[in-house]
Amino acid sequence: MEIDQHPYADLLRKEMMPNIWCSSCRIGRIKNTFIEAIQQLGYDPDKCVVVSGIGCSSRIAGYLNLDSIHATHGRAIPTALGVKLANPELKVSVMGGDGDILGIGGNHFLALARHGHDINVFCMNNFGYSMTGFQHGPTTPLGARTITTSSGNPYAPINPVSVALAAGYTFVARSTSAHPYHLIDCIISAMKNRGPSFIEILIPCMLYERRNKIKSLEALFLEKAKIKETLSEEDINQSDFMKEISLGIFRDAPVRERPHLSLVKSGKRKAARQYDVNFKPRASGIEYMQIRMEGTGGQGIVQGGKTLIHAAMNMDPKLHSTLIKRYGPEMKGGSCLTDVLLSSQPIDYPFVDVPDLLLMMSDIVAKERGDKVIVNNDGTIVVDESMVNLRLLANLPKTVKVFKIPATQIARENFRVVVANNVLLGFVCKVTSVIDKDCLKAAILKSAPPGTEEMNLAAFESGYKFGSS
């Protein structure tokens, strides 16, 4: 029967040919075994994704006619994780070299196993960084010569299989480019396995062979490799491939159930009480309003600004709003302010120049300005008198409205100091009537950490009650 085209043609980007690999390189064979595995599994090519990093073997992604990403050096695994999280139905595979996956990307390699996502990692191990002339890498054998270890590598190599097993990969295998049918079986098994899978694929590199006067690593693989049905601890810990190379599947297990740490106190958690606040949206009547909340890092200044934004949108979904937060590098304990703009029209400039409503939980920002308090001449200030030196307000225009509440003192004596911002917001809600009460309470519920809803609402109500007295 006449053959019209190569059987792998549909899964190759022919316009990218010829490839960049050396004539004696076996990376192309790995590419073909991957295609063969995809075809045997009957996977839809539109559901298969390949992600690679940087290096000779990472160029595979460019030659496969599949959705692929050629990522940055060492970042193939986190990039693949992003693809998988975006669309869990995709069959995602990472293809790269020992330097990319186990060297610069080593921490990502460990993290993938710990997180347990269903991603296949195919690591082509040629014992060094080949693309840049062959420097020593994490798997370079002890004593091997490279351009960075001309007298012989003084460092013990890592064992990829051993590391993968210890990290928790649910499928771990080893094969070589000299055993394509065995490699196809390993790839098929890895892609069927649920969870993070890893295959170490030994491949030759002519640069390594020349520097170490080895005639043919391919021949060495054929001579020393033994395909085994069952593998022992001794097979896992092999370090001298000049004697024997054990090939096969070291682990093929389903996704493990995550054990509970013995250091964590066990016990049934009470079901969290469900809180719900109903509110009715309405036209706010706000044309343009500048709000600033300022204080010290750790007082919930940014959280307070977010609560105001959510509350305003609860009240009037047609409002336009922006939030800008500013704080120093020290954050906790340093000056902090949050600017909120509410407008009936689209907002071009998101910064507050002169606030119409100023909420002061600390005087640190004013002191940094030389004891200057910035507010609109017809504006309103709500001040936490337990934290602010009131003498700073002495020279304000008489047209500025000033409301005072010991918010931090109330929170410390009745709740916890961290909810002082909601005490203040309850007071603001009562004395200014800018935002409806139920809209603010619903916004507080949305931002409150689980289990703290009751305390945060009680803090808000205490501030609201203080404003009524």
Would you spell out the secondary-structure blueprint of this structure?
Elements: H1 27-41, E1 48-52, H2 60-63, E2 67-70, H3 76-86, E3 91-97, H4 98-104, H5 106-115, E4 119-125, E5 128-129, E6 135-136, H6 160-167, E7 171-176, H7 180-192, E8 197-202, H8 206-211, H9 217-224, E9 225-227, H10 233-236, E10 245-252, E11 288-296, H11 301-315, E12 320-327, E13 335-343, E14 357-360, H12 364-368, E15 380-384, E16 401-405, H13 407-414, H14 420-432, H15 437-447, H16 453-468
Shape: elongated
Per CATH, the architecture of the largest domain is 3-Layer(aba) Sandwich
**What is the end-to-end distance?**
96 Å
Strands of the widest sheet, in order across it, are 2-1-3-4-8-7-10-9
Number of strand elements: 16
Number of domains: 2
The SS-based structural class is alpha/beta
Main attributes?
single chain, 469 residues, alpha/beta, Rossmann fold, Pyruvate-ferredoxin Oxidoreductase, domain 3, 2 domains, eight-stranded mixed beta sheet, six-stranded mixed beta sheet, 16 helices, 16 strands, 33% helix, 19% strand, elongated
Structure characterization notes:
By secondary structure, this protein is an alpha/beta fold. It has two domains: 9-252, 3-Layer(aba) Sandwich (Rossmann fold), CATH 3.40.50.970; 288-468, Pyruvate-ferredoxin oxidoreductase, PFOR, domain III (Pyruvate-ferredoxin Oxidoreductase, domain 3, 3-Layer(aba) Sandwich). The chain is 33% helix and 19% strand. Strand 1 (48-52), helix 2 and strand 2 (67-70) form a beta-alpha-beta unit. The longest helix is centred in the last third of the chain and has 16 residues, at 453-468. The chain starts with 26 loop residues before the first helix and ends with a helix.
